[in-house]
Design a protein that fits this description.
407 residues; alpha/beta; 26 strands; 18% helix; 30% strand
Length: 407
Amino acid sequence: MSLLPVTDALDHLLNAARPTQRTEKVALHEAQGRVLAENVVARLTQPPFDNSAMDGYAVRHSDIAELGSILKVAGISAAGHAFEGSAGPGETVRIFTGAPLPAFADTVLLQEDAEVLEDGRIRTTFLTPKGRHIRPRGQDFSEGDVVLKAGDVLDAGRLTVAAAMNHATLTVYARPRIAVLATGDELVAPGTTPGASQIIASNTYGISAIAREAGAEIIDLGIVADDKQAMLGAVRHALSLDIDVLVTLGGASVGDFDLVQPVLGEAGMELDFWRIAMRPGKPLMVGRLGAVQVVGLPGNPVSSLVCSVLFLEPLVRRLAHLPAKSRVRNALTAVPLKENDHRQDFVRAKITRDAAGDLSVTPFTKQDSSMMKIFAEAEGLLIRQPNAPAAAAGSACQVLLLREPSA
């Protein structure tokens, strides 16, 4: 099987993705970042009454038609405490922002446009136009209005208006369920003492973080040994958990102990593609076990992380009904770049932003795919297209941001 270009591999993966149709009701304080599964209709009218947009005086405009008009203050209307008395011609009510507008009033005179006299009266110092500084009933929305629609991603503004519409819960799409299975006799859990031929299993945590940030619910299946029956049992257990994606870590290459692909085949996986024209991350494997998509990530930590950013994150967002997220930015290389071969390179790099906002990229000298420290220090990945020619320092390039660069 020939190496598949990165863009073709991503298209294959996403075209096969079926966004989850499971829904659930969640409380507003748990709904941030979730996607609405149904329209949200206003249960009341907002504002529920005419109210003042400013602190001042509720008046009949006919009483302030002339500059220097004098009015008697008949009472107060405050938020939560409406004026319940009466005010005749030549009288006004002191009113505060958000307070109900008395029935007689058609205008609000700003407090700074009135001179307070000693005998409980005011004198106007500005000719206020009729109807000014009033928020009419229903200005924001009316009962029965569809204000939020299915597919909207719930952010601060949408959560605020949902609460204002008197909704304590919202129906959202369930998070895609992603099961993560690490494989290999050499792996032991963090916090334990590895044997002479063993290493700490670290990939699960970075991959889970990427998927969780993209909108997934993570099911950690732990570590399974390089044993066909043990792997087959772990895969069958995963399929019993109502998952959307099975992510395997390691064992997807062609060595004698790389058992993941044959085990998945025995479990019934239909292989979509395997081996990508990229560096790092060539052994990426994608297939399907019934309705469950399978993503076999390489065992090398950096290869696994790069593949997760390029493939797993977009997949999760598609399954979660979330819009695609672009991490790619234009930049300038700070150093000369050698010509590239037939694979697309994703080179760990330091990225800085100058005063004008332009990005400058400096690749790390070492790029071994087992070196996690360099990935942790990188702000992004310099993208080198297949067969790209050599480039001088200062040449235009593209980077995939992992985090916002420093100034």
